[in-house]
Design brief:
The chain is an alpha/beta fold. Helix content is 23%, strand content 26%. The chain contains eight helices and 15 strands. It has helices spanning 130-142, 159-170, 182-192, 206-213, 227-235, 266-269, 286-298, 315-321, and strands at 4-11, 24-31, 39-47, 76-83, 93-96, 103-106, 112-114, 150-153, 174-179, 196-199, 218-223, 237-245, 273-276, 306-310, 330-334. Strands 3, 4, 5, 6, 7, 14 and 15 form a seven-stranded mixed beta sheet that branches. Helix 1 (130-142) crosses helix 2 (159-170).
């Protein structure tokens, strides 16, 4: 099989504030035949995720920054088109971290075979992938979720938040969920099965609204937003409550450091536990997570939804949509 033409997305500028499509560049490149010990993969689906915004800054973090005028990377699922590796055959479906491109040649480093008969391939970028593992670790291990807990999840209609809600319901908890549109609220109550969902854009002051849905307070808050959500949640936690700090999308594009929650003193008076985590620290738990999640998907207790953009040329738009609330469930790009 001869070399093929592929397209990929490069980071053109380091954005200040909210990124724009002008910060990205679509580049055409050639992908050769694999050498000994390599495979050539054509990506079928790629993921865009909020954490990628942090990689656009040139600063140390838990994951290296994107380089200017170089292909970006991230989660993707593809199919092997040509193999010179004994462990991979043509037609194998491969989970990889070489997204933001249509095709690539690689050794086996970072490549994992997945079973498309268990679930559609793109599911390994959502409920069976990093977002699902994030929710599973965050709720069960970081948050110590217990049967009967009263739980609040912000950003609940996203890829992580929606799975977190469903795990809480599986564990017999009462779940209050916030989202940014009436459509998302309807999906959370009708399909995801939360007890109460509200549109934070129309519900009014969060500090005054939360007592109407949790008079006695929350045992656990799963934070995907930060800002006023975190401030209000802290004020309405029960004594000895737990706060899981998963993400703070409210601050990802901030150009001025936020003032922080004005209610932090209640972490002392209520004896709260606040703990942040990074899912990559917990990859040793993937096998246990996958066993649980595959069973929950099979018996219908976990449902997923996807928002899909078609074509790699629309990947920047899909990414930017994460910050305007364009996605319900997992945001994906079909290549």
């Amino acid at each position: 099989m001869p070399e093929l033409t592929s397209r990929e997305i490069h980071l053109k500028n380091r954005p200040q504030g909210v990124p724009t499509v002008d910060d990205f560049e679509l580049v055409e490149t050639k992908v050769p035949e694999p050498s000994e010990g390599e495979v050539r993969v054509r990506n079928l689906w790629m993921s865009v995720d909020p954490y990628m915004r942090g990689r656009m800054y040139d600063r140390p973090s838990y994951v290296p920054p994107f380089q200017l005028d170089q292909p970006m990377d991230g989660g993707a699922v593809g199919v092997v088109e040509s193999s010179a590796h004994p462990d991979f055959a043509e037609g194998d479906h491969i989970l990889n971290h070489l997204g933001w491109r249509e095709a690539f040649v690689s050794s086996d480093v970072g490549l994992t075979k997945v079973d498309p008969s268990l679930a559609p391939p793109q599911t390994y970028l959502g409920t069976l992938g990093m977002p699902g593992l994030t929710a599973w670790v965050g709720m069960l291990e970081i948050g110590g979720l217990g049967e009967g807990d009263h739980v609040f999840v912000s950003g609940a209609a996203g890829a992580v938040g929606s799975v977190a809600c469903q795990i809480a319901k599986i564990q017999g908890c009462t779940v209050v969920a916030s989202a940014g549109s009436d459509e998302k609220v309807a999906w959370l109550t009708d399909d995801v099965g939360v007890d109460t969902a509200y549109n934070y854009k129309t519900a009014g002051n969060l500090m005054g609204y939360l007592p109407t849905v949790a008079r006695d307070g929350f045992d656990l808050y799963f934070d995907n937003v930060g800002g006023d959500h975190l401030e209000a949640a802290l004020m309405h936690m029960k004594n000895f409550g737990r706060v899981v700090l998963c993400g703070m999308i409210d601050q990802y594009n901030a150009t001025i450091p936020p003032k922080g929650p004005r209610s932090m003193i209640v972490a002392i008076t209520k004896r709260l536990t606040l703990r942040g985590f990074i899912v990559s620290d917990h990859m040793t738990r993937y096998a246990d997570f996958r066993k649980d999640m595959a069973g929950w998907i099979a018996d219908g207790r976990v449902k997923s939804r996807e928002t899909v953009y078609e074509g790699i040329e629309h990947a920047p738009e899909a990414f930017l949509g994460l910050f305007s609330g364009a996605n319900v469930g997992k945001m994906l790009v079909k290549l």
